[in-house]
Amino acid sequence: MGWKLKRFNELTNQELYEILKERTSVFVVEQNCPYPEVDGKDPQSYHLFKEENGEIISYLRVLPAGVSYKEASIGRVLVKKEYRGQGLAEELLRRGIDFIHVELKEDTVKIQAQDYLRKFYGSFGFKAITETYLEDNIPHVDMLLQTEL
């Protein structure tokens, strides 16, 4: 079906259900990490995802400046297990960053990345701005991308 980018109130009930199902599958079940996945930030966010046969196979949310940080942010980046290793994560992140730069007109993006993905995010220009720390018992690092618009 292809890529979609929607505000929270534009999501269908089915799309929202599938998004929350996949986020829970990856971040709570697969990573064995009980934490508040539904954190109250979805209504203020943009939701970028790719659907195939009614399934969400790739997803991230864009949080405008002021929602999580003073900067715009990207979070909940996932590719469904069966679709990993096909370049979807790179395309997903590129689309999310482009949306922030072009549509939201923001030049800075802050993320809280799992430490093992530091190199992946670094390949897009993100730089670590903290030491590694534990968040929900998973090593994380805060990273910043600054671009001249």
What topology emerges from the helices and strands here?
Layout: E1 2-7, H1 13-30, E2 46-52, E3 55-63, E4 72-79, H2 88-102, E5 108-114, H3 118-122, E6 127-128, E7 133-135, E8 138-146
Parallel strand pairs: 4-5
Antiparallel strand pairs: 1-2, 2-3, 3-4, 5-8, 6-8, 7-8
Key words describing this protein structure:
149 residues, alpha+beta, Aminopeptidase, eight-stranded mixed β-sheet, 3 helices, 26% helix, 34% strand
Q: Can you describe this structure?
A:
The chain is of the alpha+beta class. It has one domain: Gcn5-related N-acetyltransferase (GNAT) (Aminopeptidase, 3-Layer(aba) Sandwich). Helices cover 26% and strands 34% of the residues. Strands 1, 2, 3, 4, 5, 6, 7 and 8 form an 8-stranded mixed beta sheet that branches. A hairpin with an 8-residue loop joins strand 3 (55-63) and strand 4. The chain starts with a strand and ends with a strand.
Q: How many strands, which pairing sense, and closed or not: the largest β-sheet?
A: 8 strands, mixed
What is the CATH superfamily label?
Gcn5-related N-acetyltransferase (GNAT)
Query: What fraction of residues sit in β-strands?
Result: 25-35%
CATH architect. name: 3-Layer(aba) Sandwich
Anisotropy-based shape: globular
Please identify the top-level CATH class: Alpha Beta
What is the CATH fold-level name?
Aminopeptidase
Oligomer: single chain
For the record, give the distance between the C-alpha atoms at the N and C termini, rounded to a whole number: 31 Å
**Overall structural domain count:** 1
Tally of separate helices = 3
Order of helices and strands: EHEEEHEHEEE
> What is the mean pLDDT?
94
Flag low-confidence runs: none
Briefly note the structural class of the backbone.
Answer: alpha+beta
The helix fraction, in percent, is: 25-40%
Using the CA coordinates, give the radius of gyration: 15 Å
Number of strands: 8
